[in-house]
Design a protein that fits this description.
The complex is a heterodimer of chains A (329) and B (236).
Chain A: E1 2-11, E2 18-28, E3 33-37, H1 44-51, E4 59-64, E5 67-68, H2 74-81, E6 84-88, H3 99-109, H4 114-127, H5 143-154, E7 161-165, H6 173-190, E8 193-198, H7 201-207, E9 210-215, E10 218-224, H8 225-230, H9 235-241, H10 243-250, E11 256-261, H11 270-278, E12 283-292, E13 295-303, H12 308-320, E14 324-328
Parallel strand pairs in A: 3-8, 3-9, 6-7, 7-8
Antiparallel strand pairs in A: 1-2, 1-4, 4-5, 9-10, 11-13, 11-14, 12-13
Helix pairs in contact in A: 3-4, 3-5, 4-5, 5-6
Chain B: H1 3-44, H2 54-69, H3 72-87, H4 93-117, H5 121-129, H6 134-165, H7 176-184, H8 190-218, H9 224-229
Classes of the chains: A alpha/beta (329), B mainly alpha (236).
Amino acid sequence: MIELNHLTKEYPSPAGTVKALTDIHLTIPDGAVYGIIGLSGAGKSTLVRCINLLERPTAGQVLIDGEDLTHAKKKRLSEVRANIGMIFQNFNLLEQRSVEANVRFPLELARFDKAKRKARVEELLALVGLSDKAKAYPSQLSGGQKQRVAIARALATSPKYLLCDEATSALDPNTTSSILALLKEINQTLGVTIVVITHEMRVVESICTDVAVIADSRIAEMGKVADVFSDPKSAIARELIIPDLIRSVKSRGGNKLRLIFDGTLSDMPIISALAMDTGEAVNIVYADTKIIDGKPFGHMVIALPEAPARAQAVKNYLTQKQVLFKEEI
Amino acid sequence: MSRLFEQLGAQGFLLGAWETVFLTFASTLAAYLIGLPLGVLLCVTDRGGIRPIVWLNKIVGFAVNIFRSIPFIILMVALIPLSRALLGTSIGNSAMIFMLVVAAVPYVARMVESSVKEVDSGVIEAARSMGASSFQIVCKVLLPEAKPSLIVGAVISTVTVLGYSAMAGTIAAGGLGSIAVTQARPSNAQDVIWLCVALIVVIVQVIQEVGMLIAKRTDRRISKNKRAKAQRTDSV
């Protein structure tokens, strides 16, 4: 388990102190795929670097399995880092080393038994599907292949945690999907807890179990992906998760309802049923549903009839059908 | 053909060329033994380096700048007493090597520093995230990743030292420079001077070409046009 307690990070700058992180409180349970999403400059890269202490927090604690890393000795910190793999947006492979030598690198650092290294490297390259590229050099690989090598390298010392800093941001959509699928597989088959830093909603959507939304150096909102996505409360989360919905709501006058589908009702033809049962034909202003965690989730915005009594009838009907909804102005 | 030219003969010129090559390589090699660690130290201890020790960096940097700004011919004269104290002599090839090393070390240190600084900070960060110690980062990341650039730097340093070695005649050391300046110049043997020039040009060209070839051959990054030709399987 990774726990961040009241974490604060400040940088000195000519214009005064810059706060990169403000009182971050976060718990990442074992086995999770934890997404940390935010716009660029929100502090998410600093946050992930505080986890393995590449950045030293100004205040607060970083607890890895209960051990406070901010007070760890150098040697101990090296050991703990071998238990926390990390991959990067720019892959950061050693350009002068072959693929297999890159994967072997952390094993050399940890003074792994020479005989065991070779077998381990082969095993890892097979895991990421690059056994045939063992002798190639990074400059001969595509972006997706480079990230696979980086993943194999990060997993070499069998870490319990894997930190991904914008790992798919430099990749095209298809490659992104394949890398995300690989990360999900690693989480499920090896039980590695994964922390994903990203500015892309689709990354969180497709692999994360939990999410924290970070804005202006603070956590704006966090929780299970299903919960946060079905009902984002903070302004920044709404802007990130349902930007089109916000726009469509603003572009049209009158009272509107946002229906929230949380995975139990969305395959029911609720609007048709509403029209038939109450005689109220409502306008759909916006609709978007997604499959997350194998369940359907989504939002739909409908325009309410202007007459208060008829609007109330619609609401009563939805309540009776156990459809979650919120009024949107 | 001048009398000196006949006196020297093929053997004389070959000996001169050999002495030039020997002085140059022996001095450059010795200069790297000290300059390489010094250059790494300059890079590593710099603000933003992997182990910032600003005061040490400032002191070493200052010393390097001082030595680099002294013209070699003056440095040689200044080093005469020290050479006598350390080597028991201030003339001949061994004194010359000593002086060349003193002159080359700061130069080499700056060369090495700039090569090592080119290494992508992301790669260093990746190594740190894997638990690498500063020493491991130097040995396994900085130096191997900077290798092609270090080789290019070594070629430039060698050629610079070769240039300095031409002043060997001043302290009765050998080489083509010495032949041209102390033997051919007084008797105005133009043919000897020009042959020395030609031989030095050939030596420099050989060092340059071979060095660059090695740098290119050992570099695992593919240049852009090579990449276009290289077969790529974007199956992922």
